[in-house]
Write a structure and sequence with these properties.
GO terms for molecular function: ligase activity. The chain is mostly helical. It contains one helix and no strands. Helix content is 98%, strand content 0%. The longest helix is centred in the middle third of the chain and has 95 residues.
Length: 97
Amino acid sequence: MAESETLKPFFQRASEAEERLARLEAALASKKDAGNEEHLKIISELQSKLEIVNAELVSEREKARKLDAENAKLQYRIKHLVRTVEEADLHKSDQAK
């Protein structure tokens, strides 16, 4: 019994240390969860922004495609108008001779 009485304070301190450790682990886990929640919120916000930007990108690409098609049509028209003007000038100069 004397030995058990001698060890009793050590067991008590060990028990208290285990309790403190358990509280610290719980606090740490709670902070991690809060940190994880903050990270998840930031990730969610970034994903939303990315989706918006991707939608804008698709829209801009479609606009660019339409403008390219319109540009090609206009270049075709200019080419033929220039040819027609050149032919008209050639006929005009032939008639003047």
